Amino acid sequence: MKTRWFDNITKHYKTAALIAGALSSSAFPPLYWWYVLLLSLVLVWNIADKVSSSRQAVAIGYWYGFGLFAAGFYWIGNALLIDVKTFGWLYPITLLGSGAFFGLFTIIPFWLWKKGVGIWHKVFGFAASWVLMEFVRSFIFTGFPWNLLGTTWAFHPVFIQTASLWGTYGLSFIMLLWAGSFYAYMQNYSNKNAAIFLLIPFLLLIFGSWRFFGYKNYDSEITVRLVQPSISQKMKWDRLSLEDNFYKYIEMSQAPGWEKADFVIWGETATPFDLDYEPFYRQEIIKAVPPKGYLITGLVRHDDESNDYQPYNSMYVIDDNGNTVAYYDKHHLVPFGEYVPLRKYLPEWVRPVANVVAEFGVGEPYKNIALPDYPPFGALICYEIIFPDAVVNRNNPPQWLVVLTNDGWYGKSFGPYQHLVAAQMRAVEEGITVVRSANSGISAVINPVGKIKAQIPLYAKQTLDVKLPLITKVPTVYAQIGGKIMALVMLLILVFWGVYKRRSVKN
Predict the structure, then answer these.
(1) Inter-residue contact 122 to 41 (CB < 8 Å)
(2) In Å, what is the CA distance from 223 to each residue of 159, 249, 265, 467, 489?
(3) Through-space distance between the first and last CA atoms of the chain, rounded to whole angstroms
(4) CA within 20 to 30 Å of 88's CA: 8, 44, 231, 261, which one?
(5) pLDDT per residue over 70-82, tens digit each?
(6) Cα-trace Rg, the chain
(7) Beta bridge partners of 455
(8) CA–CA separation, 474 vs 481, rounded Å?
(9) Domains of the chain
């Protein structure tokens, strides 16, 4: 790559890295343009080779990450457009802030790339440090492991089956090795590198086909009814619409076949009334509960034992007598959505905006709900499903997961599709059935090998009856070892990378 046009690009390496990063975001759902990712990485790697210093390579890494995450997380700002007058001015800040903050996580991989002493030394150092940064991103400041690079393989569930061995982190590592083999081939046109480039997806295909098609996809007798009314976010909490929204859920729940359902499942905060303090609506909601079955609904409950009437983003399980037989309070809260970090230290000018955000209480993590005659299920609300290694009780794993969500904040964007794929990845990693019900978004039932048995499309107003798989859970290696082992493996790779680097310098 010593052509004149490339020399011109290298002179503007920051701009080139920014554009390459933005283009790379197209590899994530729903586009899956993985070939753009490969070409973009080859471009920025070659630019990093061309620049004269590690400081310049660090700049390339930062601006690549800036573009990748600003473009990849663009949909987050859509939530601010629900109330344009109050929050609209924050949209560009959110867009640029996403790139500015998350771009920090791509600095180290590019720095190690520049320090590498050979093609594959560079590739392994880059891949291991990238995955390690993904792991850090999953917990720092409560974590946001959205768009892990491994999800770019999810264009077909066959290709994500090795997540049952090493999780999405492992697939991120494989993706970068694959891109690295392409880069290596472009450097020297070696048959060996070409063979590696062809072998990686072939092995994923072989293992994936064996696991995916080997799963016995039989139906059980348990029927879940997903109710997705696709209520506009602007209308969801409008005081004049609350009752209409509530009865819309009930009406859709009572569609033909209702009496045969075991579970009717509504979305996150679907019930706009606190049933513990609204006896009239508790009686009304019984109309949505199937005979001898249960209604699972999201709502905001309030703790009357706390001094400040603490609200919780909750899931209630209600029987046909109107009794709450179980509940779950969301544990992993959304920063700036369900609480404001360091609220009391914020400057005065931003406090009026921050005060609009409620301060929800934190519930018990990994709570299982056991009901007579049904396999126990784990409860999750909204973005809790995006966290690898943090969705089930490892000591007492459930047989299936119920996820209540509401993606109405983000409109017709890439966000709801990426949220659904996160649920697919968790299904494969844990080998568990995931039932996802959205107020607005994409409701679906996903079997333990990541196949979507049935779904309600984005923004569709629909009721869907789906039978749970007969086998709701299958054993996986990842469910035993978890993501921390993968982080340790990446650290060991970096240790060997350092040893090799030191010996090479001496020689």
Answers:
(1) no
(2) 29, 18, 11, 4, 41
(3) 28
(4) 231
(5) 999 999 998 888 8
(6) 24
(7) 444
(8) 15
(9) 4-214+483-506 (no CATH), 219-473 (3.60.110.10)
414-417 contacts: CB < 8 A, separation 24 or more? 414/28, 414/29, 414/30, 414/31, 414/74, 414/75, 415/75, 415/76, 415/78, 416/441, 416/442, 416/458, 417/29, 417/30, 417/442, 417/458
Amino acid identity at 325? V
Residue-wise pLDDT tens digits, 331-390: 999 887 787 775 555 555 454 454 445 688 999 999 999 999 999 999 999 999 999 999
The token pair that represents 229 in the structure block: 């009314």
Can you read off the two tokens belonging to residue 267? 């979305």
The DSSP string of 461-502 is: -EEEEEEEESS-B---HHHHHHHHHHHHHHHHHHHHHHHHHH
Strand, coil or helix: 2: coil
Question: Token pair 């904040």 is at which residue?
Answer: 409
Q: Answer for the pair 440, 462: CB distance below 8 angstroms, yes or no.
A: no
Q: What residues are annotated to the active site?
A: 268, 330, 382
